[in-house]
Automatic annotation (TrEMBL):
Subunit structure: Component of a multi-subunit COQ enzyme complex, composed of at least COQ3, COQ4, COQ5, COQ6, COQ7 and COQ9. Interacts with PYURF; the interaction is direct, stabilizes COQ5 protein and associates PYURF with COQ enzyme complex.
Localization annotation: Mitochondrion inner membrane
Enzyme Commission number(s): 2.1.1.201
Keyword entries, A-Z: Membrane, Methyltransferase, Mitochondrion, Mitochondrion inner membrane, S-adenosyl-L-methionine, Transferase, Ubiquinone biosynthesis
InterPro entries: SAM-dependent_MTases_sf, UbiE/COQ5_MeTrFase, UbiE/COQ5_MeTrFase_CS
Pfam families in alphabetical order: Ubie_methyltran (PF01209)
GO MF term (any one): methyltransferase activity
Functional description taken from the UniProt entry: Methyltransferase required for the conversion of 2-decaprenyl-6-methoxy-1,4-benzoquinol (DDMQH2) to 2-decaprenyl-3-methyl-6-methoxy-1,4-benzoquinol (DMQH2).
Alphabetical GO biological process terms: methylation
Chain residues that bind S-adenosyl-L-methionine: 117, 171, 199-200
Membrane topology annotation: Peripheral membrane protein
Protein family membership: Belongs to the class I-like SAM-binding methyltransferase superfamily. MenG/UbiE family.
Protein name according to UniProt: 2-methoxy-6-polyprenyl-1,4-benzoquinol methylase, mitochondrial
Gene that this polypeptide is encoded by: COQ5
């Protein structure tokens, strides 16, 4: 069921279709040129270029999306508990730091891509609500002669309690979004929050629409990172900001050794014990090792057109926050 769903999603739609078409044309050409060694060599190089990685495994670009889909479909229900267990809660601090770095202004329109179960969106809503309440209190203190009805009205309007800020969570995985929506319902997040099924490589939004684009622990899973970065650029308003929280590279050799030990010896075991899924957590640690370094990723963000690109490494480089502006 999952395989057939993701197959149609990943090989037959939009740009991916044209990519797979390119693959088809190449193999047809290959057979007609079989007597030409140079042509055959060039073609086999081209064919290799359509290969990518899924953790330490080499797979075709068409296959990767489906495999990533299966990973998150499988872990969705245990995703949040796994994160707390594996990181001893540290992922919460990293996500808080992302929001503090963002410092959203009243009225901010945020797009959280690969938003999964909503951790970034909920933090954003908490932040803007607290900020708006502080502002309201300051205003009320300044307007001493308001009636109690007027004061109550100011507090009751839920939409207004966010000062016009909104967040759109976009993720390719139905199961992750389902868990996110359940969490939102249980924690009573309603206003200013929307969920949409969509691919980071082909966002279902118009150009110049959002003030801020975030992607947390998501971009590592995308097949064509350059394409996702271009899409981030496209949907941001001029002056808009790109923020990415992702695993990165640890530079200290001693910490790196301990980190490797923990990653490869402990995490898949926790994955098996808690989520009954060794393979997905093996993919997690392998995909982290495959992801570009802080500097390499900064170059990729600049290549997509962003300016003033900078990053901050956290927890010895286990993760980094990259930031850039569409100017
Ligand atoms: C399928 O894909 C995914 C599934 C998911 O559930 C999540 C994601 C995306 C990830 C997130 C949303 C973030 C949350 C998840 C994680 C942080 C998990 C990934 C964690 C790592 C890759 C390792 C880094 C972990 C930490 C920084 C957390 C702190 C952990 C410790 C302090 C170690 C705890 C020690 C033990 C449990 C004792 C047993 C350990 C051993 C026998 C191995 C030897 C290890 C050590 C001696 C210490 C370990 C040292 C380190 C971790 C490095 C030290 C670092 C510093 C001192 C800065 C997703 O895509
Ligand atoms: C590790 S989770 C991160 C979730 C959330 N941002 C967080 O920080 O907890 C990675 C998410 O990326 C999503 N994802 C993977 N490939 C994607 C793509 N091409 N487009 C959109 N989302 C994608 C997965 O479905 C998954 O929900």
């Amino acid at each position: 069921m999952a395989a057939s769903r993701s197959c149609s999603l990943w090989s037959c739609c939009g740009r991916r279709w044209s990519r797979s078409m390119r693959g088809c044309c190449l193999s047809e050409l290959h057979s007609s040129w079989s007597g030409d060694p140079l042509g055959a060599r060039l073609l086999s190089q081209e064919k290799r270029a359509t290969e990518t990685h899924f953790g330490f495994e080499t797979v075709s670009e068409e296959e990767k999306g489906g495999k990533v889909y299966q990973v998150f479909e499988s872990v969705a229900k245990k995703y949040d508990v796994m994160n707390d267990m594996m990181s001893l809660g540290i992922h919460r601090v990293w996500k808080d730091l992302l929001i503090w770095k963002m410092r959203p202004l009243p009225g901010t329109q945020l797009l959280d891509v690969a938003g999964g179960t909503g951790d970034i969106a909920f933090r954003f809503l908490n932040y803007v609500q607290a900020q708006h309440q502080r502002k309201q209190k300051r205003q009320l203190r300044a307007q001493q002669n308001l009636s109690w009805e007027e004061i109550a009205k100011k507090y009751q309007n839920e939409e207004d309690s966010l000062g016009g800020s909104r967040v759109m969570v976009c993720d390719i995985n139905k199961e992750m979004l389902k868990v996110g929506k359940q969490k939102a319902f249980a924690q009573q997040y309603k206003a200013g929050l929307a969920w949409v099924l969509g691919d980071a490589e082909e966002l279902p939004f118009d150009d110049d629409k959002f003030d801020i684009y975030t992607i947390a622990f998501g971009i590592r899973n995308v097949t064509h990172i350059d394409q996702a970065l271009q899409e981030a650029y496209r949907v941001l308003k001029p002056g808009g900001r790109f923020l990415c929280l992702e695993f990165s590279q640890v530079s200290n050799p001693l910490i790196s050794r301990l980190y490797d030990l923990y990653s490869f010896q402990v995490i898949p075991v926790l994955g098996e014990v808690i989520a009954g899924d060794w393979k997905s957590y093996q993919y997690l640690v392998e995909s982290i090792r495959r992801f570009p370094s802080q500097e390499e990723f900064k170059d990729m963000i600049e290549d997509a057109g962003f300016q003033k690109v900078a990053y901050e490494s956290l927890t010895s480089g286990i993760v980094a926050i990259h930031s850039g502006f569409k100017l």
